[in-house]
Write a structure and sequence with these properties.
The chain has 122 residues and is mostly beta strands. The chain contains no helices and eleven strands.
Length: 122
């Protein structure tokens, strides 16, 4: 499955953005999905995950209450709504698909998309 993240940009602290992750080549309905981010010089960090059904979600503590992950299997797309953005949210955001488990460990994911850059100015 090919994944393409989009929706990034330059925003000010406190603003909102919605990222999308569109899939092609295979339906996403059988995959657990995750959003990760990677800032310059830092390791890849789990942000949010959603089960294949959409019934289970979980978040990194750093984004809990500000970010919301959702999916529309009919559109083969996963979203990340980001509110109250902070400068420390600046990173390349990547989406990933796992056929196995819903996890924060990037090694559990089988497919990765190209990232989209989010820059939050103070």
């Amino acid at each position: 499955v090919q994944l393409q993240a989009s929706g990034g940009g330059l925003v000010q602290a406190g603003d909102s953005l919605r990222l999308s992750c569109a899939a092609s080549g295979r339906t996403l309905s059988g995959y657990n999905m995750g959003w990760f981010r990677q800032a310059p010089g830092k390791e890849r960090e789990f942000v949010a995950g959603i089960s294949w059904s959409g019934f289970r979600t979980y978040y990194a503590d750093s984004v809990k209450g500000r970010f919301t992950i959702s999916r529309d299997n009919s559109k083969n797309t996963v979203y990340l709504q980001m509110n109250s953005l902070k400068p420390e949210d600046t990173a390349v955001y990547l989406c990933a698909a796992s056929s196995r488990v819903l996890a924060a460990d990037p090694d559990k994911y089988d497919f990765w998309g190209q990232g989209t850059l989010v820059t939050v100015s103070s």
